[in-house]
Specification:
The complex is a heterodimer. Chain A is mainly alpha-helical. Chain A is built from six helices and two strands, in the order ββαααααα. Chain A has a two-stranded antiparallel sheet. In chain A, helix 1 packs across helix 3 (about 85-100) and helix 3 (about 85-100) packs antiparallel against helix 6 (about 210-245). Chain A is globular, with a radius of gyration of 22 Å. By secondary structure, chain B is mainly α. Chain B is about 75% helix and about 0% strand. Chain B is built from five helices and no strands. Classes of the chains: A mainly alpha, B mainly alpha. The interface of A and B includes residues 79, 146, 161, 168 and 179 of A.
């Protein structure tokens, strides 16, 4: 049976030299990321080029993306959160396009590598901390002190709040990475069953079963790909809300 | 396309009544949109419970990662403290237990089971 992990393998396309013994390589992952950025740029430029009052096809798609992310940011981070709209929009489109690119046959799923999702999650939390401290100074750390609690309880609650805050980048990155990884492995395994059954003589009569499941899983994976981009954007907005209003 | 552009350019100089009416209507629409957005903001302003995934599977995934992330963060923090302070097993033991608490706290918050005490009223405060 085909190796279900093989699809996540990084292949070096070009080596850009070495830094401190580790190779700096341009891999298929980098290629997909560059492609995604190019695709998004083209899509947005094309969609906004005509700026018609009555939008055409591409323009209405672009407007749909804008409205969708803008509503998410507005409802989760508040109106002041809209200053972070470009940030959230970039993250959303980047993850969305990479997730969907992973659904193409023979495609490579960049977001199934935890290093990518962790880097994005750390960027989000870094933004929250840096902006929160810049805007509120030490008051930002009120975030860790729940209000209306007996002072003796604070000795336990403050560490718990700190750990809870530190766990955010972990849950943010693990959720996206695990969803994409698990989904693609499941898809590959069930698709592999079809081939195995067909090769097993009379058992081939059962092969439509995994085929039906693979079709259903593909639909589910499309849903997951879009959903996870949305969840990432929503959680980013919620965390940014904390940076704007740390008093709660 | 280019034909449209030149027409609107000419309309900008000598506007006929139709254009004036249109721009007035646009302005009214803009105002109403703005109002709708403002009320929308009040209604839906954040609580961490709003990571709403529609599917049950997505929800289960979200809650389990929240829980596990709490424990990992706690254990990691404890391990780091031990390395810095040289209190080998104790930091990790205590912080893992606290991380367990933080994980449950995350899950309660994410599931909306427990609203943080001052979130709902607090948001309508002077900050807005």
């Amino acid at each position: 049976m085909a190796d279900p992990i093989h699809q996540f393998e990084l292949k070096t396309i070009a080596s850009l030299g070495k830094i401190g013994g580790s190779e700096i390589a341009f891999t298929n992952s980098s290629l997909y990321m560059l492609g995604a950025v190019g695709l998004i740029t083209l899509f947005m430029l094309w969609g906004t080029s005509s700026r018609a009052m009555v939008p055409g096809r591409i323009q209405s798609m672009v407007e749909l993306c804008y409205e969708f992310v803008a509503d998410t940011v507005r409802s989760s981070a508040g109106k002041e959160g809209m200053m972070f709209f470009p940030f959230v929009f970039s993250l959303f489109m980047f993850i969305l396009v990479l997730n969907l690119a992973g659904m193409l046959p023979y495609g490579f799923t960049v977001t199934s590598h935890i290093i990518i999702t962790a880097a994005m999650a750390l960027l989000v939390i870094g933004t929250v901390v840096v902006y929160g401290v810049m805007k509120h100074g030490m008051h930002f750390f009120d975030l860790f002190v729940p209000k209306g609690v007996h002072p003796a309880m604070l000795a336990i609650l403050v560490p718990i709040e700190v750990i809870s805050f530190l766990s955010r980048p972990i849950s943010l990155s693990v959720r996206l990475f695990a969803n994409m990884l698990a989904g693609h492995i499941a898809l590959k395994i069930f698709a592999g069953f079809i081939v195995s059954l067909l090769a097993a003589g009379a058992w081939g009569i059962l092969s439509p079963l995994p085929l039906a499941l693979t079709v259903a899983l593909t639909a589910l994976e499309m849903l997951v790909a879009v959903l996870q981009a949305y969840v990432f954007a929503t959680l980013t907005s919620i965390y940014l809300h904390d940076a704007l209003h740390p008093g709660h | 396309m280019s034909n449209d552009g030149s027409q609107s350019g000419a309309g900008g100089r000598d506007r006929d009544p139709k254009d004036v009416e249109l721009s007035a209507r646009l302005q009214r629409l803009e105002k109403r949109l703005g109002e709708a957005r403002d009320t929308g903001k009040d209604r839906t302003i954040s609580s961490s419970a709003r990571g709403s995934d529609p599917s049950a599977m997505g929800k289960a995934f979200r809650l389990s990662t929240e829980f596990i992330a709490g424990i990992i963060a706690g254990a990691g923090l404890g391990w780091g403290l031990d390395n810095v302070a040289g209190s080998r097993p104790w930091g990790m033991i205590v912080m893992t237990m606290l991380g367990f608490g933080a994980g449950i706290w995350n899950v309660m918050r994410a599931s909306g089971f427990l609203r943080p005490p001052d979130r709902p009223g607090g948001d309508a405060g002077p900050g807005n």
